[in-house]
Structures are given as C-alpha cells and as structure tokens.
Amino acid sequence: MNDGQKVTLYYAPQTRSTATLTLLEELGAPYDLRVLNMRAGEQRQPAYLAINPMGKVPAIMHQGQLVTEQVAIFLYLADLFPEAGLAPAIGDPLRGPYLRWMAFYAACLEPAVSDRAMKRDPLPPSQSGYGDYDTVINTLGKQLAKGPYLLGERITAADILWGTALAWLTAWQLVPALPEFTKYVERISARPAVARIKEQDAALAAEHEKAAAAGRSAAQ
C-alpha cells in the first residue's frame, strides 16, 4: 500500500469511532490515529472544530479530504481497500442489499433507538421516514435470522458496523436481546480485530476518565 492510501482517523474510545477503528483493522488499512479525550471536552475545542465543525467522531481525513458520518466513512473505507473483500463491488448482485443495510442503520435504526431512549412517541406513519421502533427491530431480526451475516454467508463492512452497534445497544437494553441478535453479536465480537479493539478501547477510556477526574480535582 502506498502513502496515498493512509487514512487519518479522529477517534475517541467507547464512541461510534470504535467501530471505524475496528473496520480499519479488519481492512488491514494503514492509518494514523488522532485520539480525542471527550471526557475532557477536546471534541469541542477550536483545534478539532476547525476539522469537523460538528464536533463529532468519527471523522477521517484522506488525501486532504474530510469524510464524516459513520455510514459514509464505512462505505468510503470499504471501497478504498477492495482487496479486503468487505464491500461488494458495483455490478455484484449483493451491492444493492449491502447499500440497503448500510443506509438502514443510519436512516432507521438510529432514529428509532433515539425515540426509544428518549421515551418519545413515534410520529404518524405518514410523517415518519423510518416507520416505528417495533417495525425496525422486527425487520432487522428477520434479516439476521437468515444468518450468519446480514448478506447471508458473506461478511461485509456492514456487519462490522451493525455488530459493534448491537453489542452496545443490547447491553444498554435499547434493543431487545433476541436470540438472533445475541448470536450475531457473539459472532462478530469473536473476531480477533473486534476483540482487540474492544480491549484497547476500554483501557484508553479508563485513562481518559482518570485524566478528566484529575483535571476536575485540580480545578476545585
């Protein structure tokens, strides 16, 4: 791989950027990691807001161009490193289903889970772009029940996205621990890259909390 393929990832532990870091590992991609301590509010400081005015992670920089939003980043990276085989190519019959489940994550699961977390009543079906929480969960459950992955026998970047997300969401009880979900999470979590990044993530989060606590104590 040449230097033009190196990706810079702006990352904070135990956030959505954990999934992006896992994907980079799964892709075998060269990357530079720029770590932000969100417990210390570094994502809201001018240095990072100059990069991403939204103050969110993940964000990546590649060949001088910024890419934000989890699904866009996943699509970009999986296509950038086709030799890893995690993205069906254009013309592959699975390309459409792959894009469907990538978009479904952002367009349906995220707002549905947000409604459930905030205990908000769903909009009427005619006004809701994603439908409702129960329909989203049922649709996902039926797809995963076909297994072992979202597209059947073939693992893709979509599984890294969904597997890491469902691990958190089932743990927080924002998504029910249905058998098809728990088996899927176990399958994805057992992958070496996923387990490795999870351990690294926890250690870094503990360091950040310790640093933030020391800062609060010093300010008192």
What is the compact description of this entry?
The protein has helices at 17-27, 46-49, 70-80, 95-117, 133-146, 157-171, 179-189, 192-219; strands at residues 7-11, 31-35, 59-62, 65-68.
Can you walk through the features of this model?
The protein is an alpha+beta fold. Helices cover 53% and strands 8% of the residues. It has helices at 17-27, 46-49, 70-80, 95-117, 133-146, 157-171, 179-189, 192-219, and strands at 7-11, 31-35, 59-62, 65-68. Helix 1 (17-27) packs parallel to helix 3 (70-80) and helix 1 (17-27) runs antiparallel to helix 8 (192-219). It is globular. The mean pLDDT is 94.
If you consult CATH, what is the topology of the largest domain? Glutathione S-transferase Yfyf (Class Pi), Chain A, domain 2
Whole-angstrom Rg: 18 Å
Q: Mind telling me which CATH architecture of the largest domain this is?
A: Up-down Bundle
Structural class: alpha+beta
Cα-to-Cα separation, first versus last residue = 50 Å
Q: Helix segment count?
A: 8
Enumerate the spans where pLDDT stays under 50 for 5 or more consecutive residues: none
